Amino acid sequence: MARNEHQVVVKVEQFHNVMLVTPLSERMELAQVPIVFEQVLKLCHGGKRMFVVDFSHVFWVTPSMPGILVDLTDKIGELGGEVRLAAMNEQAQATLEIFKIRDRFMLFDNADEAIASFGNGRPARRDVYAKW
Questions:
Q1: Containing H/E element for 40?
Q2: Which phi and psi (to 5°) does residue 116 adopt?
Q3: What integer pLDDT is reported at residue 124 of this predicted model?
Q4: How far is the C-alpha of 11 from the C-alpha of 69, rounded, in Å?
Q5: Which CATH code for domain 10-122?
Q6: Which run of H or E residues covers position 111?
Q7: More confidently predicted of 47 and 30
Q8: Which stretch, 23-37, 44-58, 60-74, 115-129, has highest mean pLDDT?
């Protein structure tokens, strides 16, 4: 089976009311980033309000990532939700610093800390909610 160059695999798990969104691609290319975040917006429109985006499997991000993160955070916020970011590598964090938007995000060292920051603790993992 030929692999689409824009294909991205994302694992979504639910911990109480927190949705953990984990892109499983090592490189977040420009065409992939909007695909991931569009899926997060769909979950928010479906009633989910607390999100953690776990970057632990992503080793390179496109320079457009900061703008897309701001847009995502703003849109989720308008819908009454919150987004927390986990396990961003130094390159990704430096990009946020360069654009002077680091303070717009709640960054955590890992997904467990980000999930716990919502006050839910870390319950037993539920089945994978979705994969695309």
A1: helix 33-45
A2: -65, -30
A3: 45
A4: 18
A5: 3.30.750.24
A6: helix 111-116
A7: 47
A8: 44-58
Query: Which residues is 131 bridged to in the sheet?
Result: 11
CB-CB contact of 46 with 78 (8 Å): no
The domain limits of the chain are 10-122
Is residue 22 within 8 A of residue 51, CB to CB? The reply is: no
Helix-, strand-, coil-residue percentages of the chain, each rounded to 5: 35, 25, 40
Between the CA atoms of 6, 92, 71 and 125, what dihedral angle is there, to the nearest 10 degrees? 80
